[in-house]
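Hi C.,

You asked whether I'd gotten around to modeling the 377-residue construct. I have! Everything is below, sequence then structure, no commentary in between.
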Amino acid sequence: MLLLLTWSCLLGATNAGVMTVTMHKIPDDEFVKKIIKFRAAAASSLASSPSRTLTEKDSVIVRDFDEAQYYGTIEVGTPGQTFNVVFDTGSSWLWVPSSSCTACRRKNLFRNTKSRTFRGYSDEFHAVYGSGDVKGKFARDTVRIGNVEVTNQVFGDVSSVNFEGNLYPDARFDGLFGMAFSALSENVPPVIENALAQGKLDEPVLAFYLGSGSDGELTIGGVDRRRYAGYFRTLPLTEAAWWTVAVDFVSVNGRSVDSRTTTVVDTGTSLILGPKAAVDQLARAAGARYSDGTYYVPCDRRVPDVTFTMGGKDYVLTGDDTVLGDGVRGDDCMFMFGSQGGDLGDVPPWVLGDVFLRKYYTKFDLGRKEIGFAVLA
């Protein structure tokens, strides 16, 4: 997971219950170099380390958050303490680093004694990710996203961060802001669910515009009609835990590499992740080579389209969408697919990350439990 998200704070509400926030984009070259560096370190670590078995007390493994290109700001406490966080539809917990975290010295740290709305600590907090884990205590305080203020919010005040390599110290984010459902957070309401329960939003809707080579935008409580043309094609969720939808086919050159499967739609992952056998077939069709956890393809090679068919509609990714980083490794660029591999248990086989979401304006509807894709304006 490489979730490097940056956000500017409030742009201004379009009305009392809708907020629009700008998300700044990390330059492609810098971003791809970070992914390659991290994946090489992770591949080396996995090759030399025994596999880890989770106990019943471990939190559910959530989507890798170390491959994202966008991050933004929130405030915790009163007066507000500012944190850069990944806005992640692939998980549900909110956590920020504590003042007691010795591995977080370059981060913004939460200091509970400076907040007059701090409600105290309770149980131990432990969240497990694909690249490591974080530990601390559950806390309660006020959380602000732009002009939306959510009171008495439960979050993780993290004192220990253990990720592969230098992922966390080198990242631009301080913490993680989960935007999936409470089924992934032991039924503790995530921030957006609390905002809805407290009557702070007009609609139970989130909408992401990630753009192409430019800054992105998150709208909370509605959609930004300037960002899309036509109408949304909606897909019902297969479960209200992750934002999971059904996939009819994944194909390349008119040939299916997977079918009758599911995918998470995840703003917290930059790549598209899938079963190793299927991703290997996509890589072979693209002429990509695998090295140290990453697929590479000659930058001048014409890469075939990859199509995800969902709800009977084809969503096509061209080579311009799936190849990134001009000359990051000699004459090679990065092929923006990765394999999950192994026994994933209840985790959906595919993850549609930012590579896919940059093509479409995406609406996450908590009320109707569906996802909508619209053509960019």
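If it helps when you're writing up: The chain has six helices and 26 strands.

Thanks,
B.
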